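Archive maintenance. Older records in this collection stored only the sequence; we are now back-filling the structure field for every entry so that each record is complete. The fields below show one back-filled record exactly as it appears after the update. Entries are processed alphabetically, and histidine kinase is next in the queue.

ARCHIVE ENTRY
Title: histidine kinase
Organism field: Candidatus Accumulibacter proximus
Length field: 271
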Amino acid sequence: MKAIEENQRRKNTTFKPPGLPDFENGADTLGNLVAGVAHELNTPLGNTRIVASLLSEQFREFAAAFEAGKLRRSQMDGFLNRGREAVELLERSSARAADLVGHFKQVAVDQSSARRRSFDLRRTVEEMLVTLRLMFKRTKHQIELDIPAGLEMDSYPGPLEQVITNLVANSLTHGFVGIEQGCIELQAQAVGETQVVLRCVDNGAGIPTETLHRLFEPFFTSRLGQGGSGLGLYIAYNLVTGVLGGTIEVESSPGHGATFILTLPRTAPDR
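Back-filled structure field:
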């Protein structure tokens, strides 16, 4: 796609993660994540507890008025309205908590459960597109593929698919805000006999320079409470640099889209 090709040629700000030192230590990582999850869960669970307590009190008042034969129509209407509002808040809070726990499970999952096998990269990504395109429902955004056939890898397709899914979701959630019709292109090419470079390129809003260096930090998001958990890119970073044995960097500037570049060995390291 011409716009995306121009975006690649344009001189962008490039960020190569220096190693995120605390993340590489298993004990530090787990401790940081547990503390972060506990902090993030405090709000939705706190709201749930408060609303449940208020709802319980309203039930007692309603029951008392009913048993005493003093229940008025205005009381019933008020109880129903407050009850509906309470249920909506409980649903939102519990959904937020469940989403955080789900992302935490992705981070904490034992990577030894990932299955290693030989696979054709293009075929694997094509199979993914069936699921990925469900993320584009009710939008005019598009996803395109530029990966040559016959690019064989001996690696872990499950974690790789998770990385691609998270990068695509990041573009949809952040890159295309205020954009009616965006495009994501997944590109890949072999580098010699031992490596493959995989790019996820979008023509979205781009990333502010001042936040570029924080993209792979856990719980960092510019859309907290608006569909961003702050864990998607952190998960991608850990999978790329861990089980897949590669590196990830990002090129972007405001207004000119973003390009995530994965450099991966075609044969994953032994574990």
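Update note: Residues 29-108 form one domain. The beta strands are 13-15, 117-120, 142-146, 152-155, 183-191, 195-202, 247-252, 258-265.
Entry marked complete.
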